[in-house]
């Protein structure tokens, strides 16, 4: 856990880089610090491992005032990943990764085993990459080694300063996805600096939006996007914040439409009657175990004999409940589907359509703005207004 209490940093030339900052990062939480260049993000981060000393205020890591700690010992307990990675050029990938365990006095064999394990975890096969030198790697691979090295001594706290800033957008997105997967396994307490709001929203459990030397808003990505605390934050997150929200708004059961449901072994006349009574053009088809099989169009059932299974079509477009709306949108586009099925484990819950997706997004914006649950929002339509 990291705690800032009224921390101010004034440089010798009089620049106030950080002004009376108080916030807390909970154990296992990933907080992104985001803001324009020069707003004090890096200064904030470097005060945690004492590369910079605060002018006033107190910083605690795991309850301990870091001013009392030995800076070198402190840094070994805190993983640090920076944009230029800072790998030792004359050391192999494996040696680079085992640097901190080595400094901590681990046995060479144990340190190397740990390093190999971590390289695997960040997606680099140690038998392929372990003996290479940093200049024999791509930029993205170097960043991965940087992350593995920072995790090698299993520090409870990780500081990351624009770690993916120097790679192209495609590699960057890839590294972000991998890092999220990794973090879900290792659950470190992470402070992550970025100037990219998309990255901050994607990675952060909470985001601190910096103005000049101060935090303008400290909240979950959904709230920062849905209810910016100040005009400055609204401006910083951008006019397309509705779109950005798609990635942080989960599908909820209440968002779903309930089309008629038939089963594989139902006779077609029964299915046709079910479709007709709902006035529906298609029905979802489930198997005996109530698992999603696919769908059947009304005209295939109408006037036909036999069983639903003879005319049912497979449905590939489905998502688990809780997946982000953005994934729902992209799945619809990818499968050219007018709806996608939403499942809870194997259980069919309902379908999401473009209209329902749009509604869910509007509801989540109104819910955050009004501080109420999404299901309690009453949407106004253009006709109501
Ligand atoms: N050693 C220093 N002496 C004087 N001023 C400094 C020093 N280091 C940083 N500053 C100033 O402090 C302010 C905050 O700098 P900091 O590096 O923390 O910003 P940042 O938000 O990390 O920016 P960037 O995204 O560009 O890295 C800036 O105005 C910067 O010029």
UniProtKB/TrEMBL annotation:
SUPFAM superfamilies: CBS-domain pair, P-loop containing nucleoside triphosphate hydrolases. InterPro entries: AAA+_ATPase, ABC_transporter-like_ATP-bd, ABC_transporter-like_CS, CBS_dom, CBS_dom_sf, Gly-betaine_transp_ATP-bd, P-loop_NTPase. Residues 2-237 form the ABC transporter domain. It comes from the Bacteria. PROSITE patterns: ABC_TRANSPORTER_1, ABC_TRANSPORTER_2, CBS. SMART domains: AAA. GO terms for molecular function: ATP binding. CDD domains: ABC_OpuCA_Osmoprotection (cd03295). Keywords: ATP-binding, CBS domain, Nucleotide-binding, Repeat, Transport. Gene3D superfamilies: P-loop containing nucleotide triphosphate hydrolases. Residues 312-367 form the CBS domain. Coiled coil: none annotated. The keyword Repeat applies. NCBIfam families: proV. Belongs to the ABC transporter superfamily. This is ABC transporter ATP-binding protein.
């Amino acid at each position: 856990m990291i705690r800032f209490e009224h921390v101010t940093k004034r440089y010798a030339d009089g620049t106030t880089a950080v002004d009376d900052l108080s916030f807390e990062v909970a154990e296992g939480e990933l907080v992104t610090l985001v803001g324009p260049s020069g707003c004090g993000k890096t200064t904030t981060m470097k005060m945690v491992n004492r590369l910079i000393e605060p002018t006033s205020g107190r910083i605690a890591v795991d309850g301990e005032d870091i001013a009392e700690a030995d800076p070198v010992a402190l840094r070994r307990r805190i993983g640090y990943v920076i944009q230029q990675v800072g790998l030792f050029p004359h050391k192999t990938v494996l040696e680079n990764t085992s640097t901190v365990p080595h400094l901590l006095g681990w046995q060479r064999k144990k340190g190397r085993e740990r390093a190999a394990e971590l390289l695997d975890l960040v997606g680099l096969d140690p038998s392929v990459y372990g003996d290479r030198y940093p200049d024999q790697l791509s930029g993205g691979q170097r960043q991965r080694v940087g992350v593995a090295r920072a995790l090698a001594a299993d520090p409870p706290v990780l500081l990351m300063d624009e770690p993916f800033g120097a790679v192209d957008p495609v590699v960057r997105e890839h590294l972000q996805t991998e890092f999220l997967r990794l973090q879900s396994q290792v659950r470190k307490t992470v402070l992550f600096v970025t100037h990219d709001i998309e990255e901050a929203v994607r990675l952060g459990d909470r985001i601190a939006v910096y103005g000049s030397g101060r935090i303008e808003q400290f909240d979950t990505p959904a709230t920062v996007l849905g209810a910016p605390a100040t005009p400055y934050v609204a401006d910083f997150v951008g006019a397309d914040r509705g779109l950005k929200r798609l990635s942080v708004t989960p599908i909820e059961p209440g968002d779903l439409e309930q089309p008629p449901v038939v089963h594989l072994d139902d006779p077609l006349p029964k299915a046709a009657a079910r479709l007709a009574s709902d006035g529906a053009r298609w029905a979802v088809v489930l198997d005996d175990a109530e698992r999603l099989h696919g769908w059947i169009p009304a005209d295939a059932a109408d006037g036909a004999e036999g069983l639903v299974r003879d005319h049912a079509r497979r449905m590939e477009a489905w998502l688990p409940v809780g997946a982000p709306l953005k994934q729902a949108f992209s799945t619809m586009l990818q499968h050219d589907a007018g709806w996608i099925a939403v499942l809870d484990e194997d259980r069919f819950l309902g379908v999401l359509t473009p209209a329902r997706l749009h509604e869910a997004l509007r509801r989540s914006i109104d819910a955050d703005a009004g501080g109420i649950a999404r299901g309690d929002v009453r949407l106004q339509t253009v006709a109501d207004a």
